[in-house]
Amino acid sequence: MTVLALETSCDETAVAILRGRNHGSSPELLASEVASQVAAHEKYGGIVPEIASRNHLIYAPQLLERATRNAKIDMSLIDAFAATGGPGLASSLMIGASIAKGLAIGFGKPYLAINHLEGHLLSPFFGGADGDTKIRPNVSLIVSGGHTMLIRVHALNDYQLIGQTVDDAAGEAFDKVAKLLGLGYPGGPEIEKRARDGDLRRFDLPRSMLDSENFSFSGLKTAVRYLLPKLNGNFLADVCASFQQAIMDVLVRKSIAAAQKYGVNLVTVSGGVSCNQELRRQLREACAREGFEFKNAEPWLCTDNAAMIAFAALLRLQAGSQSNVTDEIDPNLRVA
Fold first, then answer.
1. What are the distances in angstroms from CA 330 to CA 12, 88, 115, 162, 327?
2. Average pLDDT score over the chain
3. Which of 51, 53, 249, 320 shows the smallest number of beta carbons within 10 Å?
4. Tens of pLDDT, residues 241-265
């Protein structure tokens, strides 16, 4: 069973082709192509929806041709076509969904609309060195530019929202603080790089809502904004380290608390911010101390990509599920 998937929820255009094998064994990724738009949006300090959708129209046909060529497969041999149906930017989602629907209709094959967040949610079970693709009960931390949430995963398509951000997502806070510090976009990698040489204890920044299952990072961003005019000299690395650690403390504490509360012995993490090596290290060590297993998505699966969408589609297809080509995109689609 072979699935072709498109991901165009925001500013990355991606196409992947995935071939399923026996249940429980890792599927074979035949092709995974991603066109980044970071350079196009960097000068604006964030995503410009119109620019993103225009670029999807340019890149998607090119990536489709490249993916099928690299996979050495004819489009007629694809068993199902999938695309991200939400959440995301409406003008971007429409591009990938329209292409996938057209291909499904043209070749008379099933179509699957996949939740972008479910793609992240399941990604720790795909591409790992242990080859374990069975979706096991876990507490999952999804942390990205637009989302910070904890999900209790019972099984495929059986998810419970534990908590989510009430204002800025962690990745959004990284971007905004990076802008305050005069650093580049996206902000997460810029702050992480400078934090390595900083004193994470120099500035006492707030850890908001520690006793809640929800998240809030807007106050942390504001605290940095009010701190900066008071500083002189060489403070950049220390601010980055202190700010990053404030976010790490919240993410790690809440993830461990959720696993303890819900009696789950596996913690997973995914999403763009989970590429942060300090977050992976601290969460892995916290899980080890508390006796929890820890799984993270491979770095190449953390940022927006079509491989995770193809993986979710393959699992749903194997479970007997598919979508209707008349289904509309949903920019505010919920995962639980």
1. 18, 8, 9, 22, 9
2. 94
3. 320
4. 999 999 999 999 999 999 999 999 9
